[in-house]
Write a structure and sequence with these properties.
single chain; alpha+beta; FAS1 domain; 7-stranded mixed sheet; 7 strands; globular
Length: 170
């Protein structure tokens, strides 16, 4: 009987794990839009301080708080930290505002593109006019050389996909 109770416990654990996986997958597959816009969502996340500072310096906050919809490939603070030393400070200077705008708008696609939609694309035109290359490796989505580390963060005016590398236009 002891061996039987071990099997039952293992079976209950497997069923519970399967149920949890099913529920979390369902929640991920049908994300609900937040009542917060892209900028407020990024601020609240706490891992996009550099991005938000750059948006302010470029004068793009009001745009990304607008109606949209927008798809933002949002580099984390860690992604910005991978840039050569002094790059961010240099870009935040007023005399480099146009270059900063070009870089930031290279991270934005007009419209709401979910991860499922992006996986079917090979490229997407950004609001700065250049295109991003989109590729998939299994369930991993790559935007140029950046990996999407978290997808489909729904906002009231679009969607954020977190990336691990800052995208640089040509």
């Amino acid at each position: 009987m002891i061996a039987g109770s071990s099997v039952v416990r293992r079976l209950v654990s497997l069923v519970a794990a399967a149920l949890l996986l099913t529920l979390s997958t369902a929640a991920y597959a049908n994300p609900r839009a937040s009542s917060k816009d892209i900028v407020d969502t990024a601020v609240d996340a706490g891992s996009f301080k550099t991005l938000v500072a750059a948006l302010k310096a470029a004068g793009l906050v009001d745009t990304l708080k607008g109606k949209g919809p927008f798809t933002v490939f949002a580099p984390t603070d860690d992604a910005f930290a991978k840039l050569p030393a002094g790059t961010v400070d240099e870009l935040l200077k007023p005399e480099n505002k146009q270059k900063l705008i070009a870089i930031l708008t290279y991270h934005v696609v007009a419209g709401k593109v979910t991860a499922a939609q992006a996986m079917k694309l090979s490229s997407a035109k950004t609001v700065n006019g250049e295109s991003l290359n989109i590729s998939t490796e299994g369930s991993t989505v790559k935007i140029n050389d950046a990996t999407v580390t978290k997808a489909d963060i729904m906002c009231s005016n679009g969607v954020i996909h977190v990336i691990d590398t800052v995208l640089m236009p040509k």
